[in-house]
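hey
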């Protein structure tokens, strides 16, 4: 890539849509972002208006293209990433059939319970290596068949969020290995497996799925009208993929076996890089194709991570925010100072961070799972509960890695939670593994830009791209005494979780039967 050129990384996330300018050395040159929130027409639903999402992407691309011109740089390409799982559909005219259904949608929870109670989930796992959950596209398609069949009849194409954006930019209808590996690809072939469609009883929809290719092959040329709209070259290349979690792994440098990538963001995404697909232990987590040629990832995806802290500060700990404001402190500085006043283990208070209305999916699938504090006495206060929230997210991360086929040698940490030095050290201590924080802040967009750079020939392969574009900023080593204590606390965490499984189901049944609790419908 020439010195005056740059690549736009477009990252359409669950809560933020952003476009980021990167130079050939991976430096962030400019950014424009727009906050978004899922539409929730029903308590368990989570959707995005497809036209609205594209409109936000248009705005972000236009703004960073202007920034590039102001800097005297030429935009050489646009790399796209977005949320995985979920269901996005267009009709024969290329228009949205209905709003996109997101990965965090819980409407298919009862279908997932049936699949796990029978043999559907196990039969599928043997082929795709993923334990299906309510946000899985196959389950959502079955829900649509039962509740909204007219949408499936109208749909000409069934794909994913980034595929929709790629279509709007290029007119091409494709998907890539990372997105479709959750859950429609055979892990050994990296291609659609017809048996999976039969297992999920959606084989009649097979013809509506797009061609699937590797991420470096999933490229096209921008539509002339779109290029003119943005003031970009008519021969500009557009790349689609990898999906957000795989893009983030690439964007933080996790490309080799036994390296791991964790994202502490809206969800807690934990990924182990593998040289081959390893499907043990069975029926936990997800196996997907990495955006790197010849690599796979085992992923455990907890439904919520930083939202647990957001909720705590908004609800039971709202006085902490008021106190920080009165003292002229940032809320996060105040939180960390308060957490440091409480010893490791929160003096017996423990928090399980299953806050999503859709339950949990990593390392176990349980639509009825709910968050809780345990161990409270009258001797505890709000700061014990606060530290327990931080530790609960860390222990949930450890729970995910304990269920991996192999243990990581290093974890590259990103997401909003990685900006907390206290949380980073807590993660290293809890995992007993070095934790490294890469330089920069927009790792998903960076991964999409790097992938396009490889496709354009700017780098010969992922290893060269990582070497030229990624630098590590902070490094946290585990402390032996803390790691030993967290290992003991993990046993309590895990056994407490196991003891609540039946109680979660009982609670769900009670309120569903009574029909008077909006959070259970």
């Amino acid at each position: 890539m020439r010195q005056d050129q740059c690549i736009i990384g477009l990252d359409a996330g669950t809560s933020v849509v952003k476009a980021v300018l990167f130079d050939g050395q991976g430096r962030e040159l400019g950014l424009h972002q727009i906050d978004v929130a899922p539409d929730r027409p029903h308590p368990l639903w989570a959707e995005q208006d497809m036209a609205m999402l594209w409109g936000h992407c248009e705005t972000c691309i236009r703004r960073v293209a202007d920034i590039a011109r102001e800097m005297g740089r030429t935009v050489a390409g646009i790399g796209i990433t977005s949320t995985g799982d979920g269901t996005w559909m267009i009709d024969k005219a290329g228009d949205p059939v209905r709003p996109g259904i997101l990965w965090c949608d819980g409407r298919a929870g009862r279908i997932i319970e049936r699949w796990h109670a029978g043999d559907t989930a196990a039969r599928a796992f043997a082929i795709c290596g993923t334990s299906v959950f309510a946000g899985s596209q196959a389950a959502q398609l079955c829900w649509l068949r039962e509740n909204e069949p007219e949408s499936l009849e109208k749909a000409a194409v069934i794909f994913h969020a980034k595929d929709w954006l790629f279509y709007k930019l290029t007119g091409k209808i494709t998907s890539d290995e990372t997105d479709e590996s959750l859950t429609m690809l055979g892990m050994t072939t990296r291609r659609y497996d017809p048996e999976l469609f039969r297992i999920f009883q959606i084989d009649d929809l097979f013809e509506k799925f797009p061609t699937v290719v590797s991420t470096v092959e999933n490229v096209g040329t921008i539509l002339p009208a779109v290029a003119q709209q943005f003031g970009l070259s008519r021969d500009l290349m557009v790349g689609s993929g990898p999906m957000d979690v795989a893009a983030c792994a690439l964007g933080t440098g996790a490309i080799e076996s036994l390296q791991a990538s964790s994202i502490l963001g809206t969800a807690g995404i934990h990924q182990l890089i593998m040289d081959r697909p390893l499907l043990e232990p069975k029926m936990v987590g997800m196996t997907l194709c990495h955006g790197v040629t010849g690599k796979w990832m085992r992923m455990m995806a907890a439904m919520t991570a930083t939202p647990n802290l957001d909720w705590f500060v908004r609800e039971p700990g709202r006085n902490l925010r008021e106190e920080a404001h009165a003292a002229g402190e940032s809320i996060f500085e105040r939180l960390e100072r308060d957490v440091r006043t409480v010893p490791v283990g929160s003096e017996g208070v423990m928090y399980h961070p299953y806050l999503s209305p859709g339950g949990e999916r990593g390392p176990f699938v349980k639509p009825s799972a709910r968050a809780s504090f345990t161990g409270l006495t009258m001797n505890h206060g709000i700061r014990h509960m606060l530290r327990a929230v931080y530790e609960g997210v860390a222990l949930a991360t450890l729970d995910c890695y304990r269920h991996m086929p192999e243990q990581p040698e290093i974890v590259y940490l990103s997401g909003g939670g990685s900006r907390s030095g206290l949380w980073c050290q807590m993660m290293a201590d809890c995992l007993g593994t070095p934790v490294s924080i890469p330089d920069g802040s927009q790792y998903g967009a960076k991964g999409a830009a790097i992938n396009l750079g490889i496709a354009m020939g700017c780098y010969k392969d992922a290893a060269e791209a990582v070497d030229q574009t990624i630098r590590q900023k902070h490094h946290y080593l585990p402390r032996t005494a803390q790691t030993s204590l967290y290992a003991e606390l993990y046993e309590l965490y895990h056994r407490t979780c196991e003891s609540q499984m039946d109680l979660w189901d009982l609670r769900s049944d009670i309120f569903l039967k009574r029909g008077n609790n909006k959070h259970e419908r």
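The mean pLDDT is 93. Residues 127 and 186 are 5 Å apart (CA to CA).
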